[in-house]
Amino acid sequence: MTANCSAGRGLPVGRPIVRSFTGGAGPLLQPDERRTIDDLVAAHGMRPAPPDPSGLTFSQMAQGLLESLDRPLPPLGATILAYQEPDITVAEVAGSRVADLCPGDPVAFSVSGQGVGAPFTALRVLHAMYAAGELTGGAVFAFDQSASLYADGNRAERDRVVLLVTGDVGSDGLMLDVLDEVPADDPASVLHGALDEMPVTVGAQLADHLGPAARRRSVEITRERGCAAVWATAAASWRPGRRSLVADYDPGTRRLFRALLQPG
After folding, report:
1. In DSSP terms, which residues pair with 142 in a beta bridge?
2. Is domain 12-22+52-171 annotated with CATH 3.40.50.261?
């Protein structure tokens, strides 16, 4: 495995903070917002589903998580939203709203179009900023929504946000290297060496393509789907003194995403 770390420095990251939600009335879509959504999905031969999505928006989930923290976040230099599908509302500028909820004056942007790889790409961006000396504290908010604007059966089972804080993360932190994403028709063969070396937390879509390797004791499988789900599983098995790998797979693009975690 070869890490993509431009300055040879891992990114300090704390234990992922997970918050799941049930219920939620969903946004009341205005006529102009509905037309915008219709145009977005029609370009891909799809239709809005359901017509009136229920559940929570990105901003609502982020606010719920931040309000439940035992202690406030340190000042942040950057916040990145990562998601597999767009928010169920297009009228709310979630990136700016979430940045406003965080301490400091963080620059805010989003990563999408990566499937389950969105959080990995967001962490790669923070890693590059950190290695270049442009960032001390940052955060990735990874979202899964139970509602969808698309007629797609692979949506998440519940609304979920996972927060990954980087920088000064204390004794519970690990050093993270986002490895180069690779095309893989057979992801099990790419992961073969890692499965012999360390525990591997795999996303549900990757587990579908591991074959017999999924039954190995070193593999921890994420049962729920979504780009944030594998990081929620990683949070539950987080060990500050242990070397491990987090991985997921996008079968549409056949790309394997991996992040190596190890003690500092």
Report:
1. 82, 162
2. no
pTM of the predicted structure, to 2 decimals: 0.88
Q: Which of 160, 168, 189, 182 is nearest to 256 (CA)?
A: 182
Q: Are 95 and 108 in contact (CB under 8 A)?
A: yes
Q: Which fold has domain 176-262?
A: Peroxisomal Thiolase; Chain A, domain 1 (3.40.47)
CB 87 within 8 A of CB 56: no
CB 258 within 8 A of CB 1: yes
What's the mean per-residue pLDDT of the chain?
Answer: 86
Closest listed residue to residue 261, CA positions, set 247, 251, 250, 252: 247
Q: In this structure, what token pair is assigned to residue 229?
A: 């789900």
- Judge contact between 79 and 139, C-beta under 8 A: yes
Task: For residue 170, list its beta bridge partners.
Answer: none
Locate the domains of the chain by residue range: 12-22+52-171, 176-262
pLDDT tens per residue, range 92-144? 789 999 999 999 999 999 998 888 999 999 999 999 999 999 998 999 999 99
- The answer to whether the peptide bond before residue 12 is cis (omega within 30 degrees of 0) is no
Burial call 193-205: b when 16+ CB within 10 Å, e when fewer:
ebbeeebbbbbbb
